[in-house]
Write a sequence for this structure.
């Protein structure tokens, strides 16, 4: 009998997060002939989200709609996922290494006495068995891990394992399941969202990140403009956040977000080890810094030594010509 793997998708404002599609691709890498069952939770109707999950490679999808799933709570999501696991007896679970994934998966794994390998960036095969590669020591090294037993519980870092090509001709059953979520000991009373900052930082393909060298909130404006022409998002060092040039939601690094975009442009950032922990696995790193001795140039693929306030407008001008 082939494996059955559950992929827990994350739905935000009726859209499935990209990392959930990547999780389907990861599940296929873990076991090419596994039956992939998607699980989607929300307080809204999920029929079309279910179809989309199928188009990205799930064989079937279970959707659960309930008022108590409007906002994430580990109790509410945990009850649903545990009930589905109980019913389907899957061989493993794959989910994005997101705020929700980081919170939910250890709780469920411990309830099931199952092992968990988190923050996976790549999967190799050793015969039939999957070997999981994950960064350690703030990205300075990688370790390879495998499961001793058969149950596979994995979270994958966004932007590392490419999603399968969307194929709307794929077919599969989307089943809506009634699950009563009861006796929640915590409820989310209100979510106070920040105004949208455009592209989601943790899933952006291009990030323009500013540091203390940007000197002010006003100084971030050209970075936003550069990010816009590149279709990317703006991030920041903690130095810039501490100096109140931008919000902590933009912080990248050991105590901020971990990102792996295709292109990371570090602007006026010195390259402290705590910052590198959040971005050094980016595919191409460009550094703009006026100090040629700056540590950021040690991790950069391309370096521009110069004043950012002169370099950025020139870059924007040239990119606009393309
Ligand atoms: P600086 O180190 O001050 O660098 C500014 C750079 O701008 C310099 O290299 C300078 O040459 C350049 N510059 C100045 N003017 C210009 C100009 N006009 N044009 C071009 N270049 C210019 N930091 C993080 O980023 N993320 C984290 O998650 C994080 N977590 C931390 C956790 C702990 C426990 C600790 C102790 C620290 C942490 N830090 C973190 C802080 C980190 O150690 C650094 O202090 C911080 O990254 C420095 O930010 P910066 O590079 O923007 O500033």
């Amino acid at each position: 009998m082939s494996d059955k793997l559950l992929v827990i998708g994350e739905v935000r404002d009726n859209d499935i997060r990209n990392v959930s599609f990547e999780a389907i691709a990861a599940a296929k890498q873990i076991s090419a002939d596994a039956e992939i069952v998607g699980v989607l939770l929300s307080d809204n109707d999920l029929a079309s989200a279910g179809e989309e999950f199928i188009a990205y490679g799930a064989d079937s999808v279970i959707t659960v709609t309930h008022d108590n799933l409007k906002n994430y709570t580990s109790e509410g999501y945990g009850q649903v996922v545990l009930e589905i696991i109980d019913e389907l007896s899957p061989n493993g679970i794959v989910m994005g290494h997101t705020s929700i994934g980081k919170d939910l998966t250890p709780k469920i794994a411990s309830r099931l006495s199952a092992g968990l390998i988190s923050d996976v960036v790549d999967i190799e095969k050793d015969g039939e068995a999957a070997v999981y590669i994950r960064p350690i020591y703030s990205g300075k090294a990688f370790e390879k891990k495998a499961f001793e037993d058969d149950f596979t519980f994995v979270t994958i870092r966004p932007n590392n394992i490419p999603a399968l090509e969307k194929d709307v001709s794929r077919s599969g059953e989307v089943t809506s399941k009634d699950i009563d979520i009861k006796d929640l000991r915590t409820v989310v009373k209100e979510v106070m969202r920040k105004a949208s900052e455009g592209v989601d930082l943790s899933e952006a393909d291009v990030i323009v990140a500013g540091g203390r060298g940007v000197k002010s909130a006003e100084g971030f404006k050209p970075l936003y403009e550069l990010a816009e022409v590149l279709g990317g998002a703006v991030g920041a060092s903690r130095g810039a956040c501490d100096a109140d040039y931008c919000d902590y939601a933009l912080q990248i690094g050991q105590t901020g977000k971990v990102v792996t975009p295709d292109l990371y442009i570090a602007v006026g950032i010195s390259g402290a080890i705590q910052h590198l922990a959040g971005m050094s696995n980016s595919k191409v790193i460009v550094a703009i810094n006026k100090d040629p001795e700056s540590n950021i140039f040690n991790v950069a693929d391309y370096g521009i030594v110069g004043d950012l306030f002169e370099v950025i407008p020139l870059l924007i001008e040239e990119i606009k010509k393309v």
Q: What stands out?
A: The CA atoms of residues 181 and 204 lie 34 Å apart. The two ends are 53 Å apart (CA to CA). The longest helix spans residues 74-88.
